[in-house]
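Final paragraph of the annual report: two paired records, presented back to back.
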Amino acid sequence: MILCFLVCYRNGIANSGAQLHQGALNTVTRAPLSFFATTDVGAVTSLFSQDMALVDNELPISFANLALDACNAVGMAAVIATASPYLAIAYPPILGILYLIQKFYLRTSRQLRLLDLEAKAPLYTHYLDTIRGLATLRAFRWEDHGVDKNTELLTDSQKPAYLLAMIQRALMFVLQLVVAILATSVVALATQLRTSSALTGASLVTLMTFGDVLNYIIRWWTQIETSIGAVSRLKGFSEKVPSESTCGEEEVVPVKGWPFRGDMVVDNVSASYSTVRDLNDPSSNICNSASPAETLALRDISLTIRNGEKVAICGRTGSGKSSIILLLLRLLNPLPSCRANITIDGTPLHTLNHSALRDRIITIPQEPAFLPDGTSFRSNLDPYGLADEPECRRALESVGLWSVAQRQGGLHAGLSAGSLSQGQKQLFSLARAVIRRRVRAAKQLLTRGGGLAGETSFGGGGILLVDEVSSTVDAETEEQMQTVIHLEFEGYTVVMVTHRLEMLRGFDRVVVMEKGAIVEVGPPEDMMGRDGGVFRHCGR
């Protein structure tokens, strides 16, 4: 029976922890972009590391140990009382003293434990920032500054743990005083009442470890309280953080083949990475530090892009170029007053399902993403298995990476992202977009009655969004990417964020951004010849 209980107990704890972790993970993956813009990544990391460790490790162990030590304490109290029945009279006052001790200790230790968890969040953030910016730190010789900051954060993170250890020692001291009172009572009663020396000896021997047991009971109880707090934080995180799908008014899946033309209209739209609640709440930190207008990432954006038009978005860093891409993908939500002012082929974006919208629009991000090392070339190139092997090979040939795949063993060989240069990674990401374009073209051809999959001259009406793919590549790779985009995506509506003027060859219009607003729009040739223009200044 005991064995069955332990097995069920272990499985129950494991399943509970897995469900809490899955719930928190689902919340993170479905959270809107405003959540990541306003939430410290260290706090989220601490939730998955520190809080989950409490749930998976500390909570079951503390609960089991509390039950065992409580039974042990009851038995010890009975043995101690055998020296003299009159000693049992002292138990109620002693229990009252222990209650007051644990009440004071519990409140203090619980707060210190919470401070311990919170103090580690900046340390995790520093670790993650250092890993991401390691090349920059070394280039500017900021290693010493990073080490000093790490030491400072590490010292701050250990202060609550040190104070917690100190109050645990204080608890031990107080409990030993209680045990000393009991020992004095046992000896006094034994000498005055002349009870059995054997029972008196057993009581005194039991008292030697009774204080430790009481100490452990209070500590296990405190640990359970802290662990339950971790459970509460995980559940609160899953319940309070809004899902991206709840931020829109409707969730409509576009009809098959949408978008048919690729016409895009953005009419007087403003957007912010902060939540709408933060912008309207006068007590929020955002409104205390800046006016709502200053928190806007995009201000009064009006832009009409026709079917098949190729538009480049230029501007300085932080001008809002990439924010337009995020706006078209519904990663960045506009303000409620202008939510219906963004349309593709006449369909308001705020009525569309997020996943379906992003599935219908082909996007090439600035930072290419890869599956874990060892995953095959084909799985990285076509994760959903939409194309056959010959199509995957032709896509790699179109961007000049087939020879790289051949040297490593072909499409089914394992791919390590570290084996590719930054330019090759961008070309690989472009090959993914080529496959999606060709698969879409093949479906259109089959729907219209015939054609060959992979045909490059058909399949217009789609949309391609490109976010600064040339920022970390050389001139040769940039030229190759430009050629592939113009050949493969003929007839597509292309919106490209770039800071290199060389990438503007063949584009119909240039949109110049500054401080989240559009300041200039026009053909690139006219913009370059405009005296005093912002675009011409960017070109210098």
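The closing record of the year follows.
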Amino acid sequence: MTEKKRKKRRSKPIQNLLDGEFLTRESVVTNLPYLAFLAIIAIIYIANTYYAEKTFKEIEATKKELKELRYQYITTKSTLMYLSKQTELFKQAQKLGLKETSVPPYKIFFSKLDISKEEE
């Protein structure tokens, strides 16, 4: 007989939970605003967690993109430095039919009078 009473005691809270009878108790009704507040806090906490995960994924994607762009920058810079060497410029000039001069460059000076005489 004691086993039947224990089973009834155990099944009663489960039955009350499934029936919704526990919600009509006065202690639950008086604490309903507090429970609603806790539910709102829980929803905000979950939303904040999702927002933080989304932001973290965006930051990681941006870091990855920055890393790729940095590699591309270094590669382009080294290629430009290689092509800017005098020997490489000489090779490119030869393809265009230009030759390297052996005479050093010099400045040509004109006065304003010389320019005005040429215009007349």
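The chain has a mean pLDDT of 84. This concludes the annual technical report; the extension proposal builds directly on these records.
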